[in-house]
Amino acid sequence: xxxxxxxxxxxxxxxxRVALQSAISGFTVSIFxxxxxxxxxxxxxxxxxxxxxxxxxxxxxSQVPEILHRIQPTLxxxxxxxxxxxxxxxxxxxxxxxxxxxxxxxxxAESHTWLTTNTSYLLPSQFAEETGSPSRFCSRCVLFKxxxxxxxxxxxxxxxxxxxxxxxxxxxxxxxxxERKSRIPIQHDADxxxxxxxxxxxx
Length: 203
Hints:
Layout: E1 5-9, H1 13-24, E2 28-32, H2 36-55, H3 63-69, E3 71-74, H4 77-81, E4 86-89, H5 95-108, E5 114-117, E6 137-143, E7 156-161, H6 168-171, E8 185-188, E9 200-202
Parallel strand pairs: 1-2, 1-4, 2-3, 4-5, 5-6, 7-8
Antiparallel strand pairs: 6-7, 8-9
Helix pairs in contact: 1-2
């Protein structure tokens, strides 16, 4: 599967950084939040990070406007989900909030869309049913370069999935990120914070 548009749910610390990395990697990105202030803050944070990346030589000055142009903040969930190939959720670590959001997303997302969460310690299976399509649902965790959670997402990523629900197709998939292929660690759904008792396979 080739991704073109990624929808980020939640414009907080993690969501804003996943959105930025997705845009840096060449994807069109929509970022949804309930509050305009959160979206405004996310854009300011992205601009700050981009300036740091330019100063560090990771990006050039000319790339910054193109990257920001690919990011589409919105308060409209249906608009955010329209045409999305992958949805990534980074809202508050509260099961009821996640269930409520995924119930709405399940009604609006297109049938081909992959549904993912960035939950840090909740199990994806705790709210997979609310999506209406648990076979398309998994958890994408973002890590620090040194291995910690909530990292700058340009360092490392992985997929955490419930083997009872997700088939082999997700293990064999690759994402075209600016024509660069990446090997994605696949980890099993398990109790506790990320890294506790989870098995990793690589694709």
